[in-house]
Amino acid sequence: MLLFGGVLVLHAPLLRLPYVWDEAGYYVPAVHDIFASESLIPLSTVSNAHPPLVLAWVALWWKVLGAAPLVSRAAMLAVAAFTLLGVYRLGERANNAAVAVGTTLLTGLYPVFFAQSSLVHLDLAAAGFTAWALRAYLDDRRLETFAWFALAALGKETAILAPLALAGWELVGPALFRPPNKLLLLPERSFGRLAALVGSVLPLVLWFAYHYSKTGFVFGNPEFFRYNVQATANPLRILLAFGSRLWQTFVYMGLWAVTGLTVFAMSLPAQPNEGGEERPRIAIPIQITFAVVILAYVVALSLIGGAVLSRYMLPVVPLVILIGVSTLWRRLKAWKLVLGGLAALFVAGWFWNPYYSFPFEDNLAYRDYVQLHQAGASYLEQHFAHARVLTAWSASDELNRPWLGYVHQAMHTVRIENFSAEEIRGVAGSQVAGSVAPYDVVLAFSTKFEAPFDITDRPPWSGFKTRFFGYHRDLAPDAIAEILGGRIVMQEQRRGQWIAVIAMEAPMDATLRPLQPCPVVFALYSLKAKSPPLSPPL
User: Fold this and answer.
1) CA–CA separation, 188 and 175 (whole Å)
2) How many CB atoms lie within 10 A of CB 215?
3) How many CA atoms lie within 13 Å of 496's alpha carbon, on the beta-carbon side?
4) 507: pLDDT confidence band, cut at 50, 70 and 90?
5) What CA–CA distance (Å, rounded) separates 254 from 279?
6) What is the DSSP-derived secondary structure letter of residue 444?
């Protein structure tokens, strides 16, 4: 309750924000389907085969307190508090209470964890269940290990990486490190632990079987499977994704300071405790356990996953922070001061946008995105309530699903992929040819954060991002207006993001509308035919 109260206070200004990005595109519609029809498989959106535990949890809160963003965010903050408590218990078991407190503090303030704490995504729950499972595994409580890892997999399917990696280590580790190498002190192979680890995958297998019986697909719709598995099987892409995963685990959003200080502290002698003895390290077998789980996530999520999102690494980032805090506590006399500096750095990361492209959901940039889209939707409702709006996802969903929190009445939208030069010129060409759906106004916005000086926007990296990771550069609003033949009637900017409403100078589908009959021609035609035609001539 203490942790829940803390995260609730820190997120208070964010609790009423409408749903954003993947929330609006998949997860909240899936919650809505569970809430409205009690279907564990989404009906209003294409199923991605994600297990339903977290979505059902939010739907339960909707049943009790009502369907609203405030309720959804409170439900997810409860998950965040549960995760932080698991991190504390794991840190306490791995070393001591002081290390556990420092680890919990830094984990909660880490920008990605903080931003994800109130968003309806799955990765935070997977991180929480994994932390509790690792605590049970270290204590050799096999039934609890099975239960926590099973719940982690039902939170998100990628959570099976941890128990499967540990099961592999149970088989390989004792064979590699046998006595007299007593430094490692690895526990003997236990088939009970092995059964608990492997068995924890069974509930997820049953979910996939159920999903297949209802949809005919095991791992989600074919496009989802192609994007996340088949399209990633390129050696160069795997190598680049591996580097990205290492970056997200040890460098991203302030983690570079934790990693750098840890490496520096390793060169210093251990500090004495009150009894004059050296402060203890995390036991080597425990460190190896953490390393096995971290390596499994880095490697596996380099092989699969179309979107290389940092939130996917949340189950292992607390392990990196825990090892770092333990090392700083052991070897630095002023470790509390250093942890305070790291905490301040993480808080600064909530607001400061780095010098490279990153997803809006990794810090408070998502709040700027939501507020800009609220402004754009409000302007459209006031001035173009019945217009046909050309826009891209996620605004297309925001405008035609009022329960997402942006509009009061659904608006008619014409969807395009993005606002890149190629896409906008394609729309303009289709407009001339008459093959594009008619629209009256354009809602354009920045789909990606673009830093004033992007260190990754240089060859060959820019080419790799475009080829393998779907990167594109959005045109500026005035360029979009010029190409499409419109004028900007509303525009706002906020910390590197923008949104604009572009009204078309003339209805773009005028050539597609039936011409009004000329009264004289109509009268002459009627006299010649001796009777009025069934419909006016064009």
Assistant:
1) 10
2) 15
3) 22
4) low
5) 26
6) E
Is-contact 311 121, C-beta < 8 A? yes
Domains of the chain by start residue, with CATH: 2-352 (no CATH), 365-507 (3.40.50)
Classify residue 7 by burial, with Cβ atoms within 10 Å: 0-12, 13-18, 19+.
buried
Stronger pLDDT, 514 or 391, i.e. the higher one: 391
Q: Which residue has the tokens 């007593």?
A: 182
**Distance of alpha carbon 298 from alpha carbon 319, whole angstroms:** 13
> What does the block give as tokens for 527?
């006299």
Q: How far is CA 343 from the centre of its chain?
A: 23
Which tokens belong to 499? Answer: 């949104």
The pLDDT value given to residue 536: 36
DSSP 8-class letter at 474: B
Contact 426, 449 (CB under 8 A): no
Place of tokens 């490496």: 263
Widest CA span in the chain: 116
* Overall average pLDDT of the 393-403 stretch: 91
User: What length does the chain have?
Assistant: 538
Which token pair is 74?
């409170």
CA gap 465, 308 in Å, rounded: 11
pLDDT in tens, 322-364: 999 999 999 999 999 999 999 999 999 999 988 877 889 999 9
Distance of CA 188 to the CA centre of its chain: 39
* DSSP structure string for 467-528: HHH----BPPHHHHHHHHTEEEEEEEEETTEEEEEEEESS-TTGGGSPPPPPHHHHHHHHHH
- Specify which residues 390 forms β-bridges with: 414, 442
